[in-house]
Write a structure and sequence with these properties.
alpha+beta, Arc Repressor Mutant, subunit A, 2 domains, five-stranded antiparallel β-sheet, 11 strands
């Protein structure tokens, strides 16, 4: 599940670059106006299901075409930080012009295009969509928007990601896993902050859901994290709480279970927690019944907790 070192790939022709990148995670179409005078370097590393890549390349275009999208294939989000140069991301009828320090999210389950100038350097995170606590409706609100590092949460997120981009060859083992998940947590925070920002606002129902989801995230380990407690903490009825989550296509209990399972999955993959039993990991995140935990873990990830831990 983890790599021991950084994968470095250098292309001296565009054909080499296109061949390497056109089927990385999802099928893509790459093009350039200078195929015979092209250079690119990729430093890549994966931790669990999170991929981090630092890319420096000459001018080119990347297209995720509708014809390339297949039902049932893995669905990813990509999150890019421009380290140097300039780029453009187009999706969902929007264009995000990106300069140094700007960030953007895009969704591989829908068509998108990205353009990069000569010498553009970027950090790209690729992760399964379920790793980001974001509904499909909310995702379409934030894709292809320039997220600035000059104000708000972006001022905290960008330096961490920039530092990570410069040290991809250093973190390994449990330290690398923790850094990768910290990066994803920061991206999650940034996206939800943007959803609640003043430049463009979702409706009150979506804002309320985001607030409740943040409360759940902070209290996942609590044994009394029930709809009744969550509703009381937000001065609403349990009926209204269930209504809010219906609007994002899930239920309160399903959301809690999914987030707890994700935390358990992380802990099982963490070498620093190898001494903890599976029961201890499960109980740490609110699963009091070991047999029930094993069943729901297998249903979610297609393998038992013990098999998953051995594979990591």
């Amino acid at each position: 599940m983890t790599t021991d070192g950084t994968n470095v790939f250098e292309a001296t022709t565009f054909d080499e670059w296109a061949q390497r990148m056109s089927n990385r995670f999802v099928r893509l179409q790459l093009s350039t106006t200078r195929p015979d005078d092209f250079h690119a370097v990729l430093h890549g590393r994966s931790y669990d299901e999170i991929s981090l890549s630092r890319i420096e390349a000459d001018a080119h275009q990347v297209d995720r075409l509708q014809d390339f999208i297949c039902a049932g294939e893995a669905r990813y989000f990509k999150f890019s930080l421009i380290l140097a140069g300039a780029g453009l991301v187009v999706q969902d009828g929007r264009e995000a012009v990106l300069g140094p320090g700007d960030m953007a999210l895009y969704d591989t389950s829908r068509p998108y295009s990205s353009f990069f100038e000569d010498g553009t350097e970027s950090l790209v995170l690729v992760f399964p969509q379920e790793a980001l606590s974001l509904s499909g409706e909310n995702a379409s609100r934030v894709t292809a928007r320039a997220l600035s590092s000059e104000h708000g949460t972006g001022r905290l997120v960008e330096p961490f990601l920039r530092g990570l981009a410069g040290t991809l060859d250093l973190p390994s083992g449990s330290g690398g896993i923790m850094l990768a998940h910290n990066a994803l947590d920061l991206v999650n925070t940034l996206i939800h902050t943007e959803l609640g920002g003043t430049t463009w606002r979702p409706d009150a129902r979506l804002e309320a859901v985001a607030e409740v989801q943040q409360f759940i995230e902070r209290n996942l380990a609590a044994s009394d994290l029930t709809p009744a407690r969550i509703a009381a903490a937000h001065y609403m009825s349990t009926r209204r709480l269930h209504y809010l989550f219906e609007g994002v296509g899930t239920t309160v209990t399903s959301w809690i279970k999914a987030r707890r399972l994700e935390r358990c999955r992380r802990d099982l993959a963490d070498p620093a927690l190898a001494a903890a039993t599976i029961t201890q990991v499960a109980q740490r995140w609110g699963f009091s019944d070991s047999a029930h935990f094993s069943r729901v873990f297998r249903a979610a990830f297609g393998t038992s907790p013990s098999e998953y831990r051995r594979a990591c």
